[in-house]
Amino acid sequence: MSKHLTSLIENILAPDSNLSFDSEKLSLSMRGTEGLESFENKKRQIMAVITLSQSDEIKALLDLANKCATDDELAFSLYPISTGQNWGYGTSQPAGLSKNIILLDLGQLTNISHFDNELGLVTIEPGVTQQQLSDYLQLHNYNYMVPVTGAGPDCSILANALERGYGITPYTDHFSAVTSVHGYWANGIPYQSAVYELDASEDKFVDKTFKWGLGPYLEGLFTQSNLGIVSKMTIRLAKLKPDFTSFFIQMQEDALLEEAVPLIRDILQDYEGIVGSINLMDQRRLLSMFAKKFNANDAHQVMTNQEIKGLAKELRTPSWTIVGSIYGSTRIVSAVKKEIDLIFKKLPCKRIYSNSLSIILANKVINNLPAKLINKLPTLAKISEQLDSFNKGKEIMLGKPNKVALKLAYWRHKESDNFNKNSLSPGKDGCGLLWYAPLVPMKAKKIREFVEFIRTTCPKFNIEPFITFTNLKHDCVDSTIPIVFDLSNPKAVLDAHNCLKALVEGGLKKGFVPYRLNIDQQQWLLNKDSDFWQTVAKLKTSLDPHNVLSQGRYNPT
Ligand SMILES: Cc1cc2nc3c(=O)[nH]c(=O)nc-3n(C[C@H](O)[C@H](O)[C@H](O)COP(=O)(O)OP(=O)(O)OC[C@H]3O[C@@H](n4cnc5c(N)ncnc54)[C@H](O)[C@@H]3O)c2cc1C
Description:
This protein is of the alpha+beta class. Helix content is 35%, strand content 18%.
């Protein structure tokens, strides 16, 4: 980077902001779980990292980037990240391959600028993490839930909504809960809604309460795109209800899947607003949460059916587990729990509720036993570990972030046992992970077809077929297939990428279409000449005439 450009940037940065060329910092930012570098044989690179301390610097930097764009020596582009933990989709790496990218780290913008306790509306900056919002709510005794995800406490709430991510608290679809966005288009023009602009009152509050604004809906253009940078957003939080229970329906027979699907759909339709999202997980996926590393000598192979049988027996894991939650007053929770129990009684299954006496007692017993004793007795240690995961899963459904789900990313890591479970960070720790996250029609036949497709495709590439379905609504289900691999093994990296490609290409023929893509797929899968992407290209030319922002992100060229 030229001295002239360095001084131009330094001149506009606030004293607490930072322009860094530190090679360690740069290489850490380029470390992803995806193994893109060795697979693609294309090298992504960044010139520098700018860490901002004030959100109004965003505009100054965009203006500078546009001003410098036509000068060969000074031209640069910006790639914003909030917490940069987009594991499996790119982590903190830029999508584009050009040489003059500056990573714009918004992680220090952690202001919670507004909270309305009456309405449950919170306004946050990009760097506000799930844990920070959780601490804030707890500190002020506000009875609302954080829109948590499996990615855990250190991830940005705003960036997850921009990726259109989802969780399993009552407001499952995170961008749906966003009521207001403020930011800047890539050309430097500020964005606020037409409602906000028209409002002549002092606090301009009403904008925070209404998602759709007035006139064309533009806020969606900030999501899964490269047209602007969001500096703050308002999110509607779900209220913590007086009572709650989670339910775990365990089915031993794989063949019961087809019967379970319509029951899940009915529950979501009939108890909308009371039952949160529902997850359906297969046996291997559940084992990945509880089983110790299995084939330590050659990690790049799937467990055989015989091995699965043995593990499932030892850890008492069923073929399918349905996980959901009931929120409401004590009477409502009790009544709906009875209804759900009745519905699932139609199937041969075991029904477990987090508020049942047996779980409460088990927790009491384990909590009162000395840790030394638990660790000495393997069976007790296993029960204690399973109970801990069960309790942490319950915390997540109540909007309290934790790292329990992150363990999945370490399944094929050679040193998976050596990491402290409280400080897991898959990108920094060298985990190998890609996601295949297609939408699947919520129909029993299609779900079965999908399961067979995954179970036949993944093992061909030595990838464990872990299956989860999450209902975003009764009619909309997304499956997340984690492609977990050993990042230090080049053959495993190649297999993982070929597996993802086979899944995506084979899946499209069957009508399974991803809802979200990693930074490599955003180029090879999307057809720049299609009507849709041609329209996006026109928007890009208009809002980012000099192509200074997030080159290549959801923008095939
Ligand atoms: C085990 C595991 C479980 C996971 N579970 C979930 C889950 O339940 N749900 C889920 O959705 N994801 C999940 N993930 C995937 C991912 O880690 C999360 O979605 C995570 O929140 C994304 O990272 P981030 O919040 O740090 O976003 P960032 O990496 O900061 O941002 C993501 C992208 O958004 C864009 N962006 C960020 N900030 C801005 C801004 N201010 N303006 C414009 N563009 C911006 C950038 O292009 C950036 O690359 C999981 C990952 C793992 C490993």
